[in-house]
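Quick one, T. Sequence first:
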Amino acid sequence: MPALKVANLLTSLRGLLIFPMVASILSHSWVLALAVFGLAVSTDLLDGRVARWRHEASPLGGVFDHAVDALFVSTGLGALAFAGTIPWLLPPLIVVAFVQYLLDSSALAGHSLRTSFLGRNNGIGYYVLLGVPVLRDALDLSWPTSSGVLIFSWLLLISTMASISDRLMTFLLSRKARD
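Structure tokens:
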């Protein structure tokens, strides 16, 4: 974990919520899942703001934040996939997209992460896809339907594949231009 900073503690808290999120989904403890999800989203909304406000923002902190986001949503969505709510292919694709994003940005060398429009919106979409069925089931709502959630998940899967393809094409074209 990056140096002990308030923002990194918030991110770490989100990381610690991964197991309770997965366990609550798998046990159909929807109210608990909703509480865990709400806390996780709160830490995600706060950690970057706190880092900038306290002048603690760093490329490594950004990597840590995004890595925890990717783990949180991919494992939570993995639990939903296990339950048959979404396609099983989406959670591993999220991990592939994150690793590609990390490598493409040269973040491991200390560079800032470079987001794309599609990648950023996919990241938001992953949280939405995780939260919608949890909220629906915690409040015992009939909407959105399971079909609606499934359609949204397939659209997000296609969008994730498009983002992966776009980054790959950009990488290959930039290598070709250098040669």
